[in-house]
Amino acid sequence: MPPVSVPRVLLHPRGMAPRIANFDEWAWHVIDRIHQEMVGNPSDRLDDLVSELEKLAPDRPRQPGPDYLGFAVPLRLRSSGGELRLLTTLAHFGTTVDVMIAELRLEAFLPADEATAAILSELAGRRMTAG
User: How many of the other CB atoms lie within 10 Å of CB of 75?
Assistant: First the structure.
């Protein structure tokens, strides 16, 4: 079984892909980000991951969609509370001496608008009162 990775979970049909409203645009955003990483850090593992993800992605859109921000594509995610629009940020630990920590990445998905922030707040409130 391949290791768990955020790109694989996001783009796999048994993962998050069915919930992603802008899947065609988002899939290529993820794949392009991995290509950029490979420029500075070539890796057979990343090359294999890109090949796998390209098979899961639909044809590349000819033009950026209306959500394109010039540097990122908001993730539009279907949820029980309505559609969420999320921006992602990725942190790398680049100056560590421990190999395990050097490979650690933190990815956060942040609300891209007030409506998404309100839905997430409501969903979190429901979980707090249910648990």
Answer: 24
